[in-house]
């Protein structure tokens, strides 16, 4: 899920790691859980939805990077699939 930086509020510390020259990833400094990803030039921050507790009211809109999924992983439910992220 992408959230405009102007609408994102984070409580607590995040440790950032420069994953590539174009993007970085945010992790919990206590347990190491992956929380965020951020392209250096993007106005939005991606949130790892698995890191959220409780009901969110969100629904899945698309699967991305399906060309790179493991052969053990099946996609169900008729949600649009993209070979790469657009």
Structural class computed from helices and strand pairing: mainly beta
Overall 3D geometry?
globular
Strand neighbour order, sheet with most strands: 1-5-4-3-2
Give the biggest beta sheet: 5 strands, antiparallel
Distance between the termini: 14 Å
Q: Report the helical percentage.
A: under 10%
The poorly predicted ranges are: none
Protein name: CENP-V/GFA domain-containing protein
Organism: Yoonia vestfoldensis SKA53
GO molecular function, one term: metal ion binding
InterPro entries: CENP-V/GFA (IPR006913), Mss4-like_sf (IPR011057)
Describe this structure in words.
This protein has 86 residues and is an all-beta fold. It has a domain at 2-54. It has strands at 2-4, 15-17, 23-27, 34-39, 44-47. Strands 1-5-4-3-2 form a five-stranded antiparallel β-sheet, with no helix packed on it. A hairpin with a 4-residue loop joins strand 4 and strand 5. InterPro entries: CENP-V/GFA, Mss4-like_sf. Residues 3-67 form the CENP-V/GFA domain. Pfam families: GFA.
Architecture blueprint of SSEs:
Elements: E1 2-4, E2 15-17, E3 23-27, E4 34-39, E5 44-47
Antiparallel strand pairs: 1-5, 2-3, 3-4, 4-5
Main features:
single chain, mainly beta, five-stranded antiparallel beta sheet
Give a concise summary.
Helix content is 0%, strand content 24%.
């Amino acid at each position: 899920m992408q959230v405009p930086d102007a609408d994102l509020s984070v409580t607590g510390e995040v440790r950032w790691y420069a994953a590539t020259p174009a993007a970085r990833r945010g992790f919990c400094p206590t347990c190491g859980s992956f929380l965020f990803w951020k392209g250096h030039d993007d106005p939005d921050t991606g949130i790892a939805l698995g890191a959220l507790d409780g009901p969110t009211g969100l629904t899945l809109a698309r699967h991305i990077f399906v060309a790179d999924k493991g052969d053990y992983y099946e996609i169900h439910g008729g949600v649009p699939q993209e070979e790469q992220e657009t």
